[in-house]
Fold these 2 entries.
Entry 1:
Amino acid sequence: MAPTRTTLATLLLAALLVLLVPDAAGAGVVVTRVDQPAASVRDYWTRQRMREAEPVPLPTPDQRSAPAGPEAGGSPTYVPPAGPGGPADAEILRGTAAGGRATVGVATPVLDPAAADKRMHGKVFFRIVRGPKPGNYVCSGTAVNSRNRSLVMTAGHCVFDWEDHGGKVTEWAFVPAYNGEDARPYGTWPAKRTATTRQWRRGENLRYDLGAAIVRRNPTGRRLQAVVGARGIGFDQPRRQRYDIFGYPVEGTFVSTFEYACSSPYRGSDGAGGGGPMPMRASCNMSGGSSGGGWIGGGTLLSVVSYGYGTQPTSLFGPYLSDTAKKLYKRMRGSARP
């Protein structure tokens, strides 16, 4: 691994302040403030480090089946997508954001990741500094419409690595439309806050493997959503619809610098995890590195890549977004604008 340019002072600034945010239902959201200067994070992620970063392994689910918890927190709701520079009202509306008919579950390269309807997807980079496997890691993420115009949704294990590393994540950054020719056509967006659900943070419950990050402005003062636009996000939406799944798989035959996409109908639920809504299954053969990649229906984020089984290499699983996911979104979307 290339020598780090991070100074001792910067490492000290990387200390994270963890705030536990309670709610009436006891579900909770855990928010972490990231004190690293944006410039040092951008400097850290050289092209070489990006190329050499390893995929976060998809979590290994407990084979024991658990009963389903509450399916819905209420009527279906969603936040519509937003174009670059568009209004950032990010109002939560009642209704569904259904997709179209599904095609196949084989991942194919996205020909133009910088296209207007694709560039809100990107690659997540972060560093683990403690535990048995320190190093640089990658996941996937999606810019989502929010009042602060700076929100990225991903998997919980891409902001807090419960399994192997003692949890601490530093140098977290989102690179929209990452590709092999021009690694960061829209720049590198370091996080100033990350968050996950209490169920993931405290017990690795895969039914709540959901994460979020508020990213800083770019060097010219622009916000992420003003540059690349944003997907909508839906809660308590119908399970049975088409999902277009985006991600950056690294393992196996996949080219690590390419973005890939699958298309799949709903393939059923899974009993992994503890209590809560059962995870969803889709046909998709993406591997490690796709963690956190968005499941999109009707332009709207409806789940993220969470885990898979070695015995089911053509299936991926993601959490069903319901009441706790909505609380995570509302906690991270920012305040209403006057």
Entry 2:
Amino acid sequence: MPALDLSQITDFVNEHIDQFHQARILSMQSLNLNRVLIRKNPYLFRAKNIDSASELVKSLLEAHISSSEETTFGQFLELLATYVCQAVYNGQKSTAPGIDLEFLNHDVRYLVAIKSSPNWGNSSQHKALNVYFQNALRVLRQSSLVKHVQPVLGIAYGRQKDADRGIYIQKCGQSFWTFISGMPELYVDIIQPLGFRAQERNEAFEAEKEATLNRFVRDFTIQYCSPSGYIDWAKLVRFNSSNL
């Protein structure tokens, strides 16, 4: 098993983390108010007694950013995990639907689906993952070259014990990063390079975010506030929930 130099991980992160930061900025630039409004619950904002257009819009934007960044950064972590496994175990990006990574270790072919968070999906998505693993197993077991196959759900962060889920086993946080690298402290080591030029990159994002917030407040005031400045809740609810 080749040893993985931490400087290699640092170089990889420095090279690819810009994709995450650039995606954040592009998301702000392409966003429009109504696309966010249509996905959020207007009744919740009313129940929280939010009467300020700027406060409501800021809440909308923050919720959207949190959800969007979780997805985008999850994609980056998948890329990093694949790179690490490729360097150590000659892992490869899987061609099987729903599977992210494949590698061989001690005569076992591992099929890995990577998720960023322990709360990664609903019951339908969990069932779909079972189907993806079943289909991949069916194909691989037709080959005489593959004797032992083990599906794995790898979760990039969180504190859960390894678990047997029937079709697949689950590895979370430290256990996952150790599994794909053989390095028990890798889950800690990768945090340092992620901060490379983070302040500079975040300043560019914050500037775009403030511009988007100003744009949203302007558009919301024009579309969903009365001439006297009050939020027109009836109009907002009709936009969000009236029959198509």
